Q: What sequence folds into this?
């Protein structure tokens, strides 16, 4: 992906690439053309087949990616900065962010596939044109069209995620803080203080945007950090507890049991 362009479109078979190779480069959007793909997002496993749309946001913890021998897909990769620069609408952006995090695989019916595949074709055509003076800006406008089309496809599943524009902005700022501090900060009050609002108001904002309290999102991101460290066998359980700043191993064990349904020892044995 050229940094100046901000995005790239490739085909798994034609370009001899696989989607997982782009996980550290940007947000990955995949239209499965043939075969199957499975992966684990830190909480549960997902399976995708032909005509499924997969979206891997960089904030997701994607692992255990497997492909069938006949797998083929179109892969659109967009840098976070590019998406932020050309995000056309804050409310739907926050709704889409949350919906996609919970539903990284979505089946496209005939009309939806034609819509999204048409946007991919636009990207392909413009990315291939190396002589365009305003190439990044043109690709940005196509990204805006793609996002509007994507939200239109999701709209029936997202209607309950109502929020004011101000609430959406606060919630996205909250998520940014959680991603940065969730390893050691698990108290709603900490994040409310960072945003200069009350814990009660932060939870109200979170519920208005996602239907879930702020504490649930802190736990969600903390689970990603916890699972990643528990999966790292080079770290002892004491080291993991220290990295997450638990005062005692028993406190750490109770927290893990509450979050994952298993004690740290039980999780590692599994």
A:
């Amino acid at each position: 992906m050229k940094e100046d362009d901000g995005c790239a479109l490739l085909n798994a078979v034609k370009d001899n690439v696989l989607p997982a190779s782009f996980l550290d480069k940007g947000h990955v959007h995949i239209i499965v053309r043939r075969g199957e793909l499975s992966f684990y997002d830190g909480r549960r496993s997902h399976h995708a087949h032909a005509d499924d749309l997969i979206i891997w946001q960089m904030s997701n913890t994607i692992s255990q990616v497997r492909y069938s021998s006949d797998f083929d897909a179109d892969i659109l990769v967009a840098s976070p900065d590019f998406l932020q620069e050309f995000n056309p609408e804050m409310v739907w952006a926050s709704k889409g962010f949350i919906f996609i995090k919970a539903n990284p695989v979505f089946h496209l019916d005939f009309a939806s596939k034609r819509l999204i595949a048409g946007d991919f074709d636009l990207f392909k055509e413009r990315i291939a044109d190396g002589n365009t003076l305003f190439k990044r800006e043109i690709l940005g406008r196509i990204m805006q069209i793609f996002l509007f089309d994507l939200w239109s496809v999701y709209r029936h599943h997202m209607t309950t995620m109502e929020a004011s524009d101000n609430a959406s902005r606060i919630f996205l700022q909250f998520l940014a803080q959680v991603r940065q501090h969730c390893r050691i900060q698990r108290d709603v009050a900490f994040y409310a203080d960072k945003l200069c609002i009350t814990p009660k108001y932060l939870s109200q904002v979170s519920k208005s945007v996602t239907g879930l309290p702020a504490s649930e999102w802190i736990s969600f991101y903390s689970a990603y950090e916890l699972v990643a460290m528990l999966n790292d066998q080079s770290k002892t359980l004491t080291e993991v507890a220290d990295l997450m700043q638990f005062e005692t191993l028993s406190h750490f064990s109770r927290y893990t049991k509450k979050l994952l349904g298993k004690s740290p020892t039980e999780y590692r044995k599994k």
Q: What stands out?
A: The longest strand covers residues 27-34. Residues 165-269 form a domain with the Arc Repressor Mutant, subunit A fold (CATH 1.10.10.60). Residues 74 and 122 are 13 Å apart (CA to CA).
